[in-house]
Amino acid sequence: MTSSASEAVPGRVLDLPGRQRAARVDDLTALLPQGASRPAIGDLLMAAPFNAHDHGYGLRTLDFGSVDDALEAWIPSLRLRPRTDPYLETLVAFARMAKGGIAGTIHCHNSLNADRLMEETLAVVRAAGDVGILLGLSCPLFDFDAWAYDGGPERLKPYLSEADWNGLSRTIPRYAPVEAQIAAVDAVAAANSNPLVSVQYGPIGPQWCSNALLEGIAEASALNGRRIHMHLLESPRQRQWLDRRFPQGIVTYLDDIGFLSPRLAVAHGVQLRPDEYALLAERGVQLASNPTANLRLRSGIAPLRDAVAKGLKFGIGLDGTGMDDDQDLWREMRVAYLLQGDRELTRGFSAAALFHAATSTATDIIGAGKRSDRVVVDYEKLIEDSLFDDVDEAEVLLARMTAGHVRALYVEGREIVAAGRLMTVDFNAARQELMAQARADMPRLRQERGRVRALAEASRAYYAGW
Known about the structure:
Blueprint: E1 11-14, E2 23-25, E3 44-47, H1 71-74, H2 86-99, E4 104-108, H3 117-131, E5 134-141, H4 162-169, H5 178-191, E6 197-203, H6 211-224, E7 228-232, H7 236-245, H8 250-256, E8 264-268, H9 274-282, E9 286-289, H10 291-296, H11 304-309, E10 313-316, H12 329-339, H13 351-366, E11 374-377, H14 379-382, H15 393-400, E12 406-411, E13 414-418, E14 421-422, H16 427-440, H17 442-464
Parallel strand pairs: 1-3, 4-5, 5-6, 7-8, 8-9, 9-10
Antiparallel strand pairs: 1-2, 3-11, 11-12, 12-13, 13-14
Helix pairs in contact: 2-3, 2-16, 3-5, 12-15
Protein name: Amidohydrolase family protein
Domain Amidohydrolase-related: 50-378
Pfam families: Amidohydro_1
């Protein structure tokens, strides 16, 4: 229902989802930034959510033929990502998020070229600024066991034909020294001039980092206070390998070297054990949980409910996917809520905990601190067939809310979305340009596709023996 420009607009304000019902207010316009577009009668105003883990996929993985699979067999398919402009790639990703009401995101940059890190990451910073969202920029750090745990590329050679090995071996990465990698991240932080961007160390996972690199990151973070964002214990194979590599336990090792602190967020944590998530909670570490990605890549279901009961703080991340491959954080929250519901008469994993994770802990993970960014929801659409209008709004949102119900988004007082339309950049034009760049890379991708399949099957054969 709409209103004229001179009329008050009654609606709801939901300050503490899951803890308190929404307040009914006589005029929502009085609570919006000056000059904001008018909401509709019955709209709901609430804190905007943040995406606690992502990779900035403007072009989604399935679009370039990366079909869901077990994680280690799926990773080779990322070689089919087209060579596109990093600015354009992330502009499309960030714009899609903003349209869905997301006020900020972690972006784990995927560059494998340390020499281009500065150029690429500053392009990502510019994209976030143009869209108008907050950004936690996790810069990649890795130097160990490319392609296969416990030995690297040579482990896969017996499972590849000579022709495939000869073609693939030319792409084995060469790593910059530990000091140079850490210095490169610090240089990005020094060059960043956007106060809404937090540059972070991004070790991509302990299975891909040497002890020297992990220890160097821990020392650097302790000295300069820079946050760390790292994948941890995502798949069963990672659990197996890290148990062998660190007999005392990977989480205990990280604690011993001073890696665990409130400056650290770990993504996934599907294979965490009770003593490990208790230690993470004790050290103030946050977990970025990605339920759909973990289901799609057959890693399992994270012990989130039990970890939260131990005091572990968490956020929810899309990891570039979503249940319907639509990068919809509201649906992702629904998946988490359902998966962690358990079978008891009384729910232990609450709506309040989930909304706090998405709107508060996630801002800590991004490095943004306490925020006052707001989203306006077309709540009347959500309850258009409801016989009662006093049902707990948090439960309604977790049952029905999607990105398509976002009416407006305000970040730093700036109107990013109005009347469901992105106001800051031309999403459709950017997407079309990105697709044109991707299609221009098709000759290379057609050549690469066979080797990617061979590498995926070699990975499957190698890990089948574990």
